[in-house]
Amino acid sequence: MRIFLSGPSGVGKSTIISAILGKNRDLVLSISYTTRPPRRMEIEGKDYFFITRQQFEEMIEKDAFLEWAHVHNHLYGTSISWVESTELAGKHILFDIDVQGVGQAQEKGSPGCYIFIIPPSMDELRSRLDKRGTEDEFTMKTRLDNARQELTAWKRYDFLVVNDNIETAIKDIQSIIDACRCSKTEAIKRLPWLLKIA
Ligand code: 5GP
To answer: How far is the CA of 168 from the centre of ligand 1 (A)?
Structure first.
C-alpha cells in the first residue's frame, strides 16, 4: 500500500507522520534523495539521502526516480529501486512528497491513497511557521508563497484533511489508512482466489 501525504510546510505534517508511524508498524516512511543540506539532528539514510546536485542530475538521467521536484530551491526525489525493495520486504510506504511529485506519481499510474493536509487558514499557517522559528525571513516568504501555490492542487487528492486540531487530524488520517487497506488494489492482494471468479 502506498500512502501519499502532502501539505504545505508548517501544516503539522511531521507531527502527524510520527503519530501515524507509531500506530502502523507495517508502514515505513519513504526516504527521499535531496540536494538540501542536512539540518541539525538529521541523519543520512534515515531522514534523507543527502546528495549533490550533480549526483541528483545523474539519477534523473538514469530514470531512477518515481518522481522528483524542485521544492524551496532544492531538489527532492523518490528512488524507484528504494520503493520496490521496500515493498518486496513486505512493507507499506508513507510518502511525504509535495504536490508536483504527487502529480508525477499519478501520471505514472502509481496506485495509492492520496491525502492532502490543509491548514485552517493562511494566517494560521504563517503563525505556525513563525513559532517554529527554523526559517529565516527569505525562506519563510518562499515557504508561504509556495504554500499558496501548492494549495491550488487540492483537486488531485482523494482525501482532504484540515489540521485544525492535531488529534482530530491524526484520527482522520488513521481512518483513511484503515479504509485504504480495504481498497480494491490492496484487498485483492489478500484475496487472489477472487480473481478467478468472473
Ligand atoms: P523539508 O526540506 O522540510 O524536509 O521538505 C520540504 C518539502 O519537500 C516537504 O513538504 C516534502 O513534502 C517535500 N519532499 C520531501 N521529499 C520529497 C520527494 O522525494 N519528492 C517530492 N516531490 N517532494 C519531497
So the answer is: 24
- Among 76, 102, 110, name the best residue to mutate to test ligand 1's pocket (greatest count of ligand atoms within 8 A of Cβ): 76
Nearest to 125 by CA among 4, 5, 3, 13: 13
Point out the least confidently predicted range of 5-14, 32-41, 92-101, 165-174: 5-14
pLDDT for position 198:
78
Residue 9 alpha carbon to ligand 1 centre in Å: 9
Of all residues in the chain, the percent with pLDDT exceeding 90 is 82
> Rounded to the nearest whole angstrom, what is the distance from the C-alpha of residue 196 to the centroid of ligand 1?
41
| Domain chopping of the chain, boundaries | 1-26+92-198, 31-90
Average pLDDT, the chain: 94
* Fold category of 1-26+92-198 in CATH: Rossmann fold (3.40.50)
The answer on pLDDT for 132 being more than 90 is: no
Tell me the average pLDDT across 12-22: 96
User: Which residues, judged by CB distance below 6 Å to any ligand atom, belong to the binding site of ligand 1?
Assistant: 6, 9, 32, 36, 67, 69, 71-72, 76-78, 96-98, 100-101
CATH for 31-90 is 3.30.63.10
Spatial neighbors of 113 by CB under 8 A, at least 6 apart, are: 1, 2, 3, 4, 158, 159, 176, 177, 180, 183
